[in-house]
Amino acid sequence: MEVIKLNRAERRRLQREQQKAPTYCINQKQLSNLVRDEVNSRLEEIKNEAINKTIQAYTAAWVISLHDEFQFGHKRLQRILKKVENQFECITAETVTVEDLVNWCKEYGIEIK
User: Fold this and answer.
1) Shared domain check, 112 and 78
2) Which of 12, 76, 82, 100 could pair covalently with 72 via S-S, beta carbons 3.0-4.6 A apart?
3) Residues 49, 83: one domain?
4) Cβ neighbours of 15 (radius 10 Å)
5) Whole-prediction pTM value?
6) Does residue 1 sit within a domain?
C-alpha cells in the first residue's frame, strides 16, 4: 500500500473539503416565527429612525425660524430646546399626552393639525 504524503496546504484544503456545512432542522412554524421576529425587529428600527429624523427636522426648523424671524440667540435657543425636551420627557413618562398638549395649544389660540 502506497502512502501519499501531503504538504500542509494540501492537508488543509483536504480538511476543508471534508468538513460538512452545518445543517439546521426547523419546521415551517419555526421558520415563520424567525422571519416574523426579524421583520418586526427591522420594522421597529425603521420606525424609530423615521421618528428621530422627523423630530430632528422639526427641531431644526423651529430653531432656524426662531433665530431668523425673532433673532433668538444661542442661550435663548438652548433654553427653549431644554423646555421642549422636558415636554417630550413628560410624554414619554406618560404624565401628559400629546392630546393634552394639543388642547393647551388650542387654549392659546393655536390650532395644531
Assistant:
1) yes
2) 76
3) no
4) 9
5) 0.60
6) no
Which amino acid, 113? K
What kind and span of H or E run contains 14? helix 8-18
Are 105 and 112 a contacting pair, CB within 8 Å? yes
* Number of H-type helices and E-type strands within the chain: 4, 0
79 and 55 in one domain?
Answer: no
Residues in the chain: 113
- The reply to whether 78 and 64 lie within a common domain is no
Number of C-alpha atoms within 13 angstroms, CB side, residue 79?
A: 5
- pLDDT tens digits, one per residue of 67-106: 999 999 999 999 999 999 999 999 999 999 999 999 999 9
In the chain, where do the E strands start and end?
Answer: none
- For residues 107 and 113, the answer to whether their CB atoms sit within 8 Å is no
The amino acid that residue 49 corresponds to is: E
Taking each helix axis from N to C terminus, what angle separates 28-70 and 74-92, rounded to the nearest 10 degrees? Answer: 150
Cα distance between residue 35 and residue 29, in whole Å? 10
